[in-house]
UniProtKB/TrEMBL annotation:
UniProt biased composition (Polar residues): 680-691, 699-709
Membrane topology (UniProt): Multi-pass membrane protein
Residues the record marks as active site: 251, 292, 466
GO MF entry, a single one: serine-type endopeptidase activity
Protein name, UniProt field: furin
UniProt domain P/Homo B: residue ranges: 541-670
Sequence ranges of Gly residues compositional bias: 1-10
Protein family per UniProt: Belongs to the peptidase S8 family. Furin subfamily.
UniProt-annotated location(s): Golgi apparatus membrane
Length: 886
C-alpha cells in the first residue's frame, strides 16, 4: 500500500539516492549526466559544453542553430531546477492559508469498526490506499486520484466512505504549515567538512574527559567547565551515557548509515511517514535541505571515542528518526509521528512547529492532541512518553511562543536557547511556557553547535532552538538512565529544580512565590545534566496530577483603546490542587488587530507571568478562541487567593473579552524527596535581576537580590476591574478546629492549612488572616462572597486604594504621585515628568493654535464669500445699467 511520490508531495524523487556519502552531483554524473537536482533523465548533449562545442564545429548555420538550442534548453533546465528548489517550494507553501487552514490534501482519517481487514476492504472498494492504523479504529487513507493539494474539498468521497456501515467518521485532511527551527548557513562557508578520522588538535587546558573525536575540542557547551557548560562530563564520569534509553527525532529524515551514528541507530524508533515505509533516509537535493533531522540526531547520540566527528550528549543511547517534514504535513502525519512505537521509544525530540513569523497562532490538531494525551498516559508502560520541543526562532519578528500550541502545552518540555556568552539570542522568543534552556548559536562570531551532517559529513554550524531541543533530549536520556521509573511529570519537576539561572543574562529574571528564579527568555535556567542525574537517582515519583477549573461569569468585557482591563478571580478551594505545576488561562476575545494586545496573569503569591506580549506583525482580526495561554512560572506555589488578569490594548480599536477561565494543574501534597521543604534548591537562587521587562514578582516575606522596586510601566487611559469568586466544580468550606479562632480564621480548606474566611476587622491574604494588608496591596470586600480580602495594587503603586494604575496613594522612590483629577492619581517616573510637562504645554499650545487657525479659516472664508457676493452684485448692476442705457 505504500506509494512513492515526488517532490513536495512527500515521497523521494525517482532516481535520487536514499543514502550513502556520495553527493547528488556525483550520482547524477554516474547516471549519464542526469539533472543532479531532480534526478531525472540526462539532458540532450547540446546542453552540455562538449555538445555545444561539437555542434558549433558543423558550420556557421548549424552553429547558429546549435547555439540557440543550447541557450533555450539551458534556460529550460534552469527553470526546472528552480521549480524544484526548496526556496521556491517554501514560497509556494507561504501561499497556503495560515494557521492550519490550508489546502485540502488527498489524505483522509477514517474511523472504522472491524479492524485492519475491514479497513483494507473499504479502502480498496473506494480507490484509497490504507496507510495503517494510527489509533485503535482510526485509519490513515489516501486517494489515488485526488489532487495532492486542492482549494476545494472532496465531499463525494466523504459520502461514499460514510455509506459503509462500518465507517463512523471520515475527515479529509488539510495541509498544515510546519517549519524547521534552524537557519541556513552561507554556502561555501567551510563550516561543513567530511567526517574524517583523527585530525589535529588545538592546544587546550586539560579536561576531566578527553575523546579522540576530531571536533570534541570545539564542543564548548560540553567541555568549558567552570559553570559555563551544561555539566555533562561529571554525569559521564559516573557512567551515565544514556544506555538503554531510546530517543527519536521527528524531522525530515535520518542518515542512518552515517559512521558516527550507525552504531546507535534503532530501526524500531524509525519510520518514513512521508513515503509510508520503514526507511527514514532523507531525500537528497542540491541544497541539502533535508539535513536537519540528521544534525539533531547527532547531537543526541553521535558515537564517542571513534575518531569520527563529534560526541553526542547521550552517546550510549539508541536513536531513531521519523521522516515526516519532507512533504505535506497534516494532522494525521503529526499523529502517526508522535504515536510511533510508544512502548519502545522513551523520548521524542521535535525542532519544528508553526511559522515563527510573529502573526501565526496554531497548534496540534485533533489527532495530534490525542497522540500527546495517549503518549503521556499510556507510553512507556504508563509512565508517559517524554516530548521535548524547541521553543521557536521568531525573536526577530517579535513572536511569542505562547502562540505555538506545541510549546504552550503541558505535555512538552519547551526548551529555549542561550548564546555562548549567556545572552538571549536574537532569534529567541520569550514566553511563560518555556521550562528551561540549553546552549546554541548567537550573533555572528559566536560559536555554534557541532554535530554530524549529510553525506557522512561533520559540521560546526548547527543553529537556533533546533539545536537546543536535541541537547535537552540527550540530557533527559542521562537522567532516565539513572532512574527508569521517572514519569513524564517527574522529568519536568527535576528540570525545574536543577536548572541553573547563573551566568544567563536577561532583563526579565524574577523570583516566584516559592523563591525560584524564573525568566520568560530562559525558563528556570540552563539545564544541568549532573544535577539532574543526581536528583533522578533518589527521586520519588510525584503524587497524582489533579486538575481544577475556575471559571469567570460569561459576560462580554470591553477592552478600551489605549487602555486595559483588570479582572480578578478568588480561588477558595481547588480540589486536589494544593501545589501548582502548570497554569492555563483559557481566553476567548475579539480584536480588530490581535497583535496590539498584551496579557498578564498575577498569582496570589505575586508572580506575574506575561501570557502574551505585543506582536507588531500580527494584524489578524481573528482574536483568540478558547486559547490556553500557559505559564510554568508559578510552579510550586499554592493556588489559593486572588488571581489577577490584565489585558492591555495598545491599538486604536476596542477589543472584547468574551470568556476566560483558569485551569490549574498540580498535586494535593508537595512533590519531591524533601518532605515539607518549602524553598527550592540553591541552584535556582541568587540571580542578578537587573531591570525587569515584565514587572516585579516578589514572594511574601522574601526579597530577591538586587530587587528593583522602582519599575514603572505607566498605562494610558482608565482601566477598570471586576472582582468575583471563581466557580469551581467542587468547592468545599471546612470549619476550624479548636484553637484556630485565635488566629482570626473562621473557616479553612479541607487540608486545614489555609484560611478561607476571617473574623471581622481582619483581612484574608494568601490563606492567612492579617490585621492590616501588607505593602502593595489594598483592603476590599469581595462583592460575590462578601469576604474581607487583600488584593494587589497596580505594579506602579507602592500604596493604593484599588487595583488600577490611577488609584495610587503613594509611589516608589523613583516616581512621583501625579494627580490628573480628584479621582485619578498616577505614579509616573520622575525622569518622565519634564517630558510630560512639556507634552502638556505642547498639547495646550496646539489646541490654542488650532482654535485660532479655525477662526482665521472661518474669517477668511467669510471674507472671500463676501467679496465674491459683492462682486457678483456689482457685475449684475453693471449689466442692468448697460441694458437700460442702451
Amino acid at each position: 500500500m505504500a506509494q512513492d511520490g515526488g517532490g513536495q508531495d512527500g515521497g523521494r524523487q525517482e532516481g535520487l539516492p536514499r543514502g550513502g556519502p556520495a553527493r547528488p552531483e556525483a550520482v547524477a554524473a554516474a547516471r549519464g549526466g542526469g539533472d543532479p537536482l531532480r534526478g531525472g533523465p540526462a539532458l540532450p548533449a547540446a546542453v552540455t559544453t562538449g555538445g555545444c562545442v561539437s555542434a558549433l564545429r558543423t558550420g556557421a548555420t548549424a552553429a547558429s542553430m546549435a547555439l540557440r538550442t543550447c541557450v533555450l534548453l539551458a534556460l529550460l533546465a534552469q527553470c526546472l531546477a528552480a521549480a524544484s528548489s526548496p526556496s521556491l517550494r517554501a514560497a509556494e507553501d507561504n501561499l497556503l492559508a495560515d494557521s492550519g487552514h490550508g489546502h485540502f490534501s488527498s489524505q483522509w482519517i477514517v474511523h472504522i469498526d472491524g479492524g485492519p481487514a475491514a479497513a483494507d476492504e473499504i479502502a480498496a472498494r473506494h480507490g484509497f490506499d490504507n496507510h495503517g492504523e494510527i489509533f485503535e479504529g482510526v485509519f490513515h487513507f489516501e486517494h489515488k486520484r485526488v489532487a495532492k493539494r486542492s482549494v476545494d474539498p472532496s465531499p463525494h468521497h466523504d459520502t461514499r466512505l460514510l455509506s459503509e456501515p462500518n465507517v463512523k467518521r471520515a475527515l479529509q485532511q488539510r495541509i498544515r504549515r510546519r517549519v524547521k527551527r534552524d537557519f541556513l548557513e552561507e554556502q561555501g562557508s567551510g563550516r561543513t567538512e567530511r567526517a574524517a578520522r583523527g585530525g589535529p588538535r588545538s592546544e587546550r587546558s586539560k579536561t576531566p574527559v578527553m575523546f579522540n573525536d576530531p571536533r570534541w575540542l570545539q564542543m564548548w557547551y560540553l567541555n568549558r567547565g567552570g559553570g559555563l557548560d551544561m555539566n555533562v562530563q561529571p554525569a559521564w564520569e559516573e557512567g551515565y551515557t544514556g544506555r538503554g534509553v531510546v530517543v527519536t527525532i521527528l524531522d525530515d529524515g535520518l542518515e542512518k548509515d552515517h559512521p558516527d551514528i550507525s552504531r546507535n541507530y534503532d530501526p524500531q524508533a524509525s519510520y518514513d511517514v512521508n513515503s509510508h515505509d520503514d526507511d527514514p533516509m532523507p531525500r537528497y537535493d542540491m541544497l541539502d535541505s533535508n539535513r536537519h533531522g540528521t544534525r539533531c540526531a547527532g547531537e543526541v547520540a553521535a558515537t564517542a571515542n571513534n575518531s569520527i566527528c563529534a560526541v553526542g550528549v547521550a552517546f550510549g543511547a539508541s536513536v531513531g528518526g521519523v521522516r515526516m517534514l519532507d512533504g505535506d504535513v497534516t494532522d494525521a502525519v503529526e499523529a502517526r509521528s508522535l504515536s510511533l512505537n510508544p512502548q519502545h521509544i522513551d523520548i521524542y525530540s521535535a525542532s519544528w512547529g508553526p511559522d515563527d513569523d510573529g502573526k501565526t497562532v496554531d497548534g496540534p490538531g485533533e489527532l495530534a492532541t490525542r497522540a500527546f494525551v495517549e503518549g503521556i498516559s499510556r507510553g512507556r508502560g504508563g509512565k508517559g512518553s517524554i516530548f521535548v520541543w524547541a521553543s521557536g526562532n521568531g525573536g526577530r519578528d517579535m513572536d511569542n511562543c505562547n502562540c505555538d500550541g506545541y510549546t504552550n502545552s503541558i505535555w512538552t518540555l519547551s526548551i529555549s536557547s542561550a548564546t555562548e556568552n549567556g545572552l538571549v539570542p536574537w532569534y529567541s522568543e520569550a514566553c511563560s511556557s518555556t521550562l528551561a534552556t540549553t546552549y546554541s548559536s548567537g550573533q555572528t562570531g559566536e560559536k555554534q553547535v557541532v554535530t554530524i551532517d549529510l553525506h557522512h559529513m561533520c559540521t560546526s554550524s548547527h543553529t537556533g532552538t533546533s539545536a537546543s531541543a536535541p541537547l535537552a533530549a540527550g540530557i533527559c536520556a542521562l537522567a532516565l538512565e539513572a532512574n527508569r521509573d521517572l514519569t513524564w511529570r517527574d522529568m519536568q519537576h527535576i528540570v525545574v529544580r536543577t536548572a541553573r539561572p547563573a551566568n544567563l543574562q536577561s532583563n526579565d529574571w524574577a523570583v516566584n512565590g516559592v523563591g525560584r528564579n524564573v525568566s520568560h527568555s530562559f525558563g528556570y535556567g540552563l539545564m544541568d545534566a549532573h544535577a539532574m542525574v543526581q536528583l533522578a537517582r533518589s527521586w520519588k515519583s510525584v503524587p497524582d496530577q489533579h486538575r481544577c477549573e475556575v471559571s469567570a461569569p460569561h459576560t462580554d468585557k470591553l477592552i478600551p483603546s489605549k487602555s486595559q482591563v483588570v479582572l480578578q478571580l478568588h480561588v477558595k478551594e481547588c480540589a486536589g490542587v494544593n501545589f501548582l505545576e502548570h497554569v492555563q488561562a483559557k481566553i476567548s476575545l475579539a480584536s480588530s488587530r490581535r497583535g496590539d494586545l498584551q496579557i498578564h496573569l498575577t498569582s496570589p503569591a505575586g508572580t506575574r507571568s506575561t501570557l502574551l506580549a505585543r506582536r507588531p506583525q500580527d494584524m489578524s482580526r481573528g482574536g483568540f478562541t478558547a486559547w490556553p495561554f500557559m505559564s510554568v512560572h508559578t510552579w510550586g506555589e499554592q493556588p489559593f487567593g486572588t488571581w489577577q488578569l490584565e489585558i492591555h490594548n495598545e491599538g486604536r480599536f476596542l477589543g472584547t473579552l468574551t470568556e476566560w477561565k483558569l485551569i490549574l494543574y498540580g498535586t494535593e501534597t508537595e512533590p519531591g524527596n524533601d518532605g515539607d521543604r518549602k524553598s527550592p534548591p540553591s541552584s535556582n537562587t541568587n540571580v542578578n535581576n537587573g531591570n525587569r521587562k515584565y514587572g516585579v514578582n516578589r514572594p511574601v516575606n522574601q526579597s530577591s537580590p538586587n530587587q528593583d522596586e522602582n519599575v514603572v510601566e505607566p498605562d494610558i487611559g482608565s482601566p477598570w476591574k471586576e472582582v468575583h469568586v471563581g466557580h469551581t466544580h467542587n468547592e468545599v468550606r471546612g470549619t476550624t478546629e479548636d484553637g484556630i479562632s485565635s488566629s482570626g480564621c473562621l473557616s479553612q480548606d479541607s487540608s486545614h492549612r489555609y484560611c478561607l474566611e476571617c473574623a471581622p476587622n481582619l483581612w484574608l491574604w494568601q490563606g492567612q488572616c492579617e490585621e492590616k494588608c501588607p505593602n502593595r496591596t489594598y483592603s476590599t470586600i469581595d462583592p460575590a462572597s462578601h469576604i474581607s480580602v487583600c488584593s494587589w495594587c497596580h505594579y506602579s503603586c507602592k500604596y493604593c486604594v484599588g487595583p488600577n494604575d490611577y488609584e495610587c496613594s503613594a509611589c516608589f522612590g523613583d516616581a512621583t504621585l501625579y494627580q490628573m483629577s480628584t479621582a485619578e492619581k498616577f505614579c509616573y517616573p520622575k525622569v518622565l515628568l519634564p517630558a510630560m510637562d512639556t507634552a502638556a504645554w505642547y498639547q495646550k499650545t496646539v489646541i490654542v493654535f488650532s482654535i485660532v487657525a479655525v477662526l482665521l479659516f472661518v474669517l477668511i472664508a467669510l471674507f472671500i464669500v463676501n467679496v465674491f457676493y459683492n462682486g457678483r452684485i456689482s457685475n449684475q448692476y453693471k449689466i442692468v445699467k448697460t441694458s437700460e442705457d442702451s
